[in-house]
Every structure is written in structure tokens, then in C-alpha cells.
């Protein structure tokens, strides 16, 4: 899966991001948190890739690595045909094409800057637009995300959580990026507001032909929004393929656990009360040997404790990293 | 469900005095909680669900909060008329509570075992107060081995040691919440444990006295989905083992549907619908409940479209005179703006506050 194809706006090849841990002993063993550990994904143009997993699985680090906000350890990220980790480039040029929406709009919007100025910032800095043009574009963007021009004169404190997230989205799409990385865009929001934001994201994607990378722990949101899904566990990609295929027939034992533990709004199907889940997410500093899921896996055998399985395809686009994938067939 | 409710709330109104005005957080709420039943209170942030929970356990900080009216009858005692000392007698023993973030509920500088021991200490103190007043030192001597109490406090508590009896009691409490290596866990500090483990310890502490009612305020919101599933399953199992009732406060209708017997939907301080979980999901009556159900993403965007509820929650400093949902309601009528709809029984065990279903 290494060859580059023009259909993919972004591709990572054997990407590793480790965070070194400072230890008190200068002669001690150097340790690191293996946040992203050998991740290769492809993001087709105009589609949505959902990266799902539990806290500490490395999904946010992956997003930050793609945006050059966190330095990678090794590996390649090919964006629009350019290897952005190996080529020296002006980050401004990259951020014109690639933008991010963070989880908590309260911490990503400056509380002392008016909404219209927050949205204008990328226009001025990345596009070098002049004042009149900026004002027009800001008004246009506010309408695009379902706010009125009057909201532009307010401060973030005067908006509700959903409105703030709309502003964050407006700012992200301001420089007309090709790819928007959404890091848990709705997890700080209430159910009714979450539905509004999800609907908005879909509208914007269709209107501006955007590609999304959605980072989320919420399977229902991932299922709703995405075309392709990548499941991460303790830094590794364990399953990768079309969303509907993974949801209807997950093959990696971890994906099965993850999907069956997501509560479904149906009192007649109480999936949560039937399942048996062993153990907890392992430490990323000292992960288990071999397959990192083996201590919790119902199918684990000796091979699993020795050897970390590679991500192999089980059908054209569906990849699973499991030694005994036939057991879940 | 039993006929006789263990807790019966009538006409409860709670407001908060803030700098910018009085916020009506809970508005004339009526609620009955039966024996050994799992009730979920569902609503969005600011709907008053946490205020309601805190008022039941008596942990509302007053001021700013103020209970304007109402009766809260627990085993034929009106909790709202008790003085703080009497109230304390109910907290933990009769009504217990667990919170969203177990790390802030647990004391970071005490070992887990010692924190659970504290609950036992309090119980011993209460027992003592019936006959001869027992001091804290008396209890300490009961709880910790006598000799050890006099050691200087900088010697770690573990060395002072818990008495064997108490230690066994704590280990039993931890075993109840399916903590396998309880012997090791009681020597640990909260930061050494995972989120799921911490919440289990909170549940163990809350259920140690076998309360008749356990209030759980968003107990799994800070947890991962697989851990959430484990904790919810545990709560459901323990409810029957300990024979308690659980009042689960949650924003997540999916979670509520998985575990609750009955669901109470709150909106802007009002109970808008109160129904058996199956009735609510098969036939939601209130437009807000319908809206909430239509907001939950299920399936993919190509097959289903979400129907978000338009607009936002009204400002509770200046609530509208009529139904608070009127401004967002697709079925709004003239009467909705004139007076608030009462919560009436539409069918057996299905109550709704909406003029669509008569007055």
C-alpha cells in the first residue's frame, strides 16, 4: 500500500511518533511513549476518514503529526503529492490547504478577540487579504456556518457552546482548505447541538468538496460521518476499511469489543449488558509484547504474545492486524 | 417496581441567585422513586438534572442555591425540613452519590483502603453516638489497631495498619465491585489507578452502607466506551445484589436506554416526560423527547439524516411565561405561550407536560 495515487489527498507511510520521557537518571534507560506506532493510512479526496479509539490510543497525536504540530519520529506523510515531513516548506502554505477544528472551542478561541477578528486572522495571515475583502469574506463564512453577521461583533463568552464550535469551523474553512482535521468536534456538545454541528459539517463538505479526518471516540458519530474508518489501539492501527463494512462486520477482536460496547439508543437491544470485557487499555510506555491487545483478547494464542501482527488485507480495502483473523469470520 | 416509593418529591423548586439575576434551575418538579428500580434523568446541560440530584442528597451549596418550595419525602420524613445534623444521618447510609470525575472525589493523599475505612469510621461514630458519645480517637482505635494510633503521623498509614476486621470488610467491598486484586488495590493511591478502577472504588464506597438510593451523576462520562460498558453493567448488577435504587443522571439517551427501567426527560428545569423506557422509545410523546431521539446519530449519513432541534435553550434568568420549549417546538400553539403545561398522566405510568395531550 505504499505507492502514491492521485485519488488520495493524504497518505501516511509507516508513521511513528514517540514522545520521549525525561527520567531523573541521565544514565537510565531512555523510554518513550509510543503514541503513534507504525501507522499507514490513505485518505481519499472528498471523503471522510474516521480515526476511532479510546483515550491514549494515539488518535490525537496522529492528527497533530499530520499538521506538523508534533514532530514525527520517522515515516512519511504525503499530502497532495508532497512529502511534508521531508520537504522544507513554509507552514503557511500547508495551513492554507490543511486546517484543524479542536475539541473545545473555549480553549481554541481567544476570549478577548471578537469573533469576526478570530475568523479574519487566517484570511489576513495565510491569504494576505485586504481589509474590505476580509470583511466580506467573514460575513460570508458566518452565514455558511449558520450564524448571522451580528455574531461577528461578539466575544466568545457571549456565544453558546454550539455557536462557538460553528465559529471554530468557520475559521478552519476560511482559507479554503482541502483537508480539515476534526478532533472530537462534538464531544463537548449536547445531543441536540451535536446533531446541528454534524449536519453543518456534512453540508460544508458537499458545498466545498472538503476532505475530513475525523478523530473521535464516539462510534455513532464516526459511523454517521465517515466513509472509511481506522481503528487504533495503543498506537497501532488494528483495523482499517470502509466504515459500513467495519460497523456491520468488525474483524479485529478489539474493534468487536469497541463497537459492541458503544451504547445504542434501543432498550430492546441491550448490547452493553451482555458483553464481557476483560482488562483495560495498556500503558503506552510499557505496552504488552507482541500484539498489544493479547492480554484482553478472547482469541489470543502463544503467537500473539510474541509477534505483533502486520496489517493485512482481508478484502480489497479492508485491512486487519490480527494473527487469527479467520476466527472472527 | 414496588408500589410504595422510597422517595417522593413534590412541587420542588430550586433557584440560584446569581449576579445577573435569579436562575430557576428546577421548576415545580414532581418525582417518585420506587424500590429497587433504575431511573435515568436525561437532559442537556443546564436542564437542572444535577441540581435535582444534589438537592436529594443535600449537597446543594446554599446560597447561591435556594429551595423555594417543595416536599421531599424519604421513608415518610420530609428531608427538606431536617437540620444539617439530621440530614447528615441520611447521607451515605440511606442515600449515597457518585460523581462524574472520580479523581476529584477521591482524596489524592490517602491510600484507597484508608479512604474506604473512613466511611466505616463514620458509621462506627454514629453507632457510638446512640449510647455514649464516642470521640474521634475512640473510633480511630477501633478502626486502626490500638497500639498504632499513637505512632507519629509521619509514619505511613499503611505501617500503622488497618485492623484485620476492617481490612476484610474493605476487601469485601472491593470484591463486590469486581476488583480482583483487592489486597493490592487498598495499598494504592488514587493516581495509580485507572479511571474505571477509580469509579469502581467510588461505587464500592457508596454501596458500603447498602443505601436505599444511589445517585450517579454522569458516572461514565469521563470514561472510555469499553470502560463505560463495564461500569454500567456493574451498576446494573449491583442494583439487584444490594437491592438499591439507582438514579442515573446522564445527557446520553443511548446510555439511559441500555440500563434504565424508567426515563425522566428534563428540559430547562422542567420534567417534560416521565415514562417506562420501552414506552419512551416506542412512543415518545413530548416534542422535545421526540427531538432528542431524532438527534442521535445512527447509521450513516447516506441513509439517515439527523433532524436537529432548531434554536437554543431559553435563558433561565428570564424564562418565558408559557412552555419553555415553545420557541423550538414544531407543534407550538397559542396556549403554549400563555401558560406552562402541567405534567399529567397520559397513559398509565406515562406522564407528559404538553398541551398537545390535553390539559
Task: Please summarize what this structure is.
Helix content of chain A is 33%, strand content 22%. Chain A is of the alpha/beta class and 329 residues long.
What does this structure look like?
The complex is a heterodimer of chains A (329) and B (359). Chain A has 329 residues and is α/β, with parallel strands linked by helices. Chain A has one domain: P-loop containing nucleotide triphosphate hydrolases (Rossmann fold, 3-Layer(aba) Sandwich), CATH 3.40.50.300. Chain A has helices spanning 59-66, 91-97, 105-108, 115-127, 131-144, 161-173, 191-208, 219-225, 243-248, 253-261, 271-274, 302-306; strands at 8-21, 31-39, 42-44, 48-52, 74-79, 82-83, 98-101, 179-183, 211-216, 228-233, 236-242, 312-313, 319-320. In chain A, the strands form 2 sheets. Chain A has an 8-stranded mixed β-sheet, sandwiched between helices. In chain A, strands 1, 2, 3, 5 and 6 form a 5-stranded antiparallel β-sheet that branches. In chain A, helix 6 runs parallel beside helix 7 (191-208). The relative contact order of chain A is 0.14. The mean pLDDT of chain A is 88. Chain B is of the alpha/beta class and 359 residues long. Chain B folds into 2 domains: 1-103 and 212-359, 3-Layer(aba) Sandwich (Rossmann fold); 110-188, no CATH class. Helix content of chain B is 35%, strand content 21%. Chain B has helices at 49-57, 84-88, 102-105, 112-130, 136-143, 157-160, 164-176, 182-185, 195-207, 225-242, 253-259, 277-282, 287-295, 334-338, and strands spanning 7-18, 21-33, 38-42, 65-74, 77-78, 95-98, 213-217, 245-250, 262-267, 270-276, 344-347, 350-352. In chain B, strand 7, helix 10 and strand 8 (245-250) form a beta-alpha-beta unit. The two termini of chain B are 28 Å apart. Chain A binds chain B through residues 54-55, 160-162, 190-196, 198-199, 202, 217, 219-221, 223-225, 243-244, 257-258, 260-268, 270-273, 275, 277, 280-281, and chain B through 44-45, 194, 196-197, 224-230, 232-233, 236, 251-255, 257-260, 277-278, 281, 291-301, 304-309, 312.
Amino acid at each position: 500500500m505504499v505507492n502514491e495515487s492521485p485519488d488520495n489527498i493524504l497518505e501516511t507511510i509507516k508513521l511513528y511518533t514517540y514522545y520521549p520521557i525525561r527520567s531523573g537518571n541521565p544514565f537510565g534507560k531512555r523510554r518513550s511513549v509510543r503514541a503513534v506506532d507504525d501507522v499507514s493510512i490513505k485518505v481519499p479526496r472528498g471523503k471522510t476518514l474516521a480515526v476511532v479509539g479510546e483515550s491514549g490510543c494515539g488518535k490525537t497525536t496522529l492528527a497533530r503529526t499530520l499538521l506538523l504540530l508534533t514532530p514525527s519520529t520517522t515515516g512519511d506523510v504525503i499530502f497532495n503529492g508532497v512529502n511534508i515531513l521531508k520537504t522544507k516548506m513554509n507552514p503557511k502554505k500547508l495551513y492554507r490547504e490543511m486546517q484543524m477544528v479542536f475539541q473545545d472551542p473555549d480553549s481554541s478561541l481567544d476570549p478577548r478577540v471578537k469573533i469576526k477578528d478570530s475568523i479574519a486572522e487566517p484570511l489576513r495571515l495565510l491569504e494576505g487579504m485586504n481589509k474590505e475583502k476580509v470583511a466580506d469574506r467573514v460575513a460570508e463564512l458566518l452565514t455558511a456556518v449558520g450564524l448571522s453577521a451580528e455574531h461577528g461583533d461578539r466575544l466568545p463568552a457571549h456565544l453558546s457552546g454550539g455557536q462557538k464550535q460553528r465559529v471554530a469551523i468557520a475559521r478552519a474553512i476560511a482559507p479554503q482548505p482541502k483537508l480539515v482535521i476534526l478532533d472530537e468536534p462534538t464531544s463537548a456538545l449536547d445531543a441536540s447541538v451535536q446533531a446541528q454541528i454534524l449536519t453543518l459539517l456534512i453540508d460544508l463538505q458537499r458545498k466545498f468538496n472538503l476532505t475530513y479526518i475525523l478523530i473521535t471516540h464516539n462510534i455513532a458519530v464516526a459511523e454517521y460521518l465517515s466513509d472509511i474508518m481506522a481503528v487504533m489501539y495503543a498506537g497501532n492501527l488494528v483495523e482499517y476499511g470502509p466504515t459500513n463494512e467495519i460497523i456491520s462486520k468488525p474483524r479485529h477482536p478489539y474493534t468487536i469489543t469497541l463497537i459492541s460496547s458503544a451504547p445504542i439508543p434501543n432498550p430492546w437491544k441491550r448490547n452493553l449488558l451482555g458483553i464481557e470485557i476483560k482488562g483495560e487499555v495498556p500503558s503506552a510506555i510499557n505496552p504488552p509484547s507482541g500484539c498489544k491487545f493479547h492480554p484482553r483478547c478472547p482469541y489470543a494464542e502463544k503467537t500473539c504474545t510474541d509477534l505483533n501482527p502486520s496489517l493485512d488485507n482481508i478484502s480489497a480495502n479492508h485491512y486487519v492486524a490480527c494473527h487469527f483473523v479467520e476466527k472472527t469470520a | 417496581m414496588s408500589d410504595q416509593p422510597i422517595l417522593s418529591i413534590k412541587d420542588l423548586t430550586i433557584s440560584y441567585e446569581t449576579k445577573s439575576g435569579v436562575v430557576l434551575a428546577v421548576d415545580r418538579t414532581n418525582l417518585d422513586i420506587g424500590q429497587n428500580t433504575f431511573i435515568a434523568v436525561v437532559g442537556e446541560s443546564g436542564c437542572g438534572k444535577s441540581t435535582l440530584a444534589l438537592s436529594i442528597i443535600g449537597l446543594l451549596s446554599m446560597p447561591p442555591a435556594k429551595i423555594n418550595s417543595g416536599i421531599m419525602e424519604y421513608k415518610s420524613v420530609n428531608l427538606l425540613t431536617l437540620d444539617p445534623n439530621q440530614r447528615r444521618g441520611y447521607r451515605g447510609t440511606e442515600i449515597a452519590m457518585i460523581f462524574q470525575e472520580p479523581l476529584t472525589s477521591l482524596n489524592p493523599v490517602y491510600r484507597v483502603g484508608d479512604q474506604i475505612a473512613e466511611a466505616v469510621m463514620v458509621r462506627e461514630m454514629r453507632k457510638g453516638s446512640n449510647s455514649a458519645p464516642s470521640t474521634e480517637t475512640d473510633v480511630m482505635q477501633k478502626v486502626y489497631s490500638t497500639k498504632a494510633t499513637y505512632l507519629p503521623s509521619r509514619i505511613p498509614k499503611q505501617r500503622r495498619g488497618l485492623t484485620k476486621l476492617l481490612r476484610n470488610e474493605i476487601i469485601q467491598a472491593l470484591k463486590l465491585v469486581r476488583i480482583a486484586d483487592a489486597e493490592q488495590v487498598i495499598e494504592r493511591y488514587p493516581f495509580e489507578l485507572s479511571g474505571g478502577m477509580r469509579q469502581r472504588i467510588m461505587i464500592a464506597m457508596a454501596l458500603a452502607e447498602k443505601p436505599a438510593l444511589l445517585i450517579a451523576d454522569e458516572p461514565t462520562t469521563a470514561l472510555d466506551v469499553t470502560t463505560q460498558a463495564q461500569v454500567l453493567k456493574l451498576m446494573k448488577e449491583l442494583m439487584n445484589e444490594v437491592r438499591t435504587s439507582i438514579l442515573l443522571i446522564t445527557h446520553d439517551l443511548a446510555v439511559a436506554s441500555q440500563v434504565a427501567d424508567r426515563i425522566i426527560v428534563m428540559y430547562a428545569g422542567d420534567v417534560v416526560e416521565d415514562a417506562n423506557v420501552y414506552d419512551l422509545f416506542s412512543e415518545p410523546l413530548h416534542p422535545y423527547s421526540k427531538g432528542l431521539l431524532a438527534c442521535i446519530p445512527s447509521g450513516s449519513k447516506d441513509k439517515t439524516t439527523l433532524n436537529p432541534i432548531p434554536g437554543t435553550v431559553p435563558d433561565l434568568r428570564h424564562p418565558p411565561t408559557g412552555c419553555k420549549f415553545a420557541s423550538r417546538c414544531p407543534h407550538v400553539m397559542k396556549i403554549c405561550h400563555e401558560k406552562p403545561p402541567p405534567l399529567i398522566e397520559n397513559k398509565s405510568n406515562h406522564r407528559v407536560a404538553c398541551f398537545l395531550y390535553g390539559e
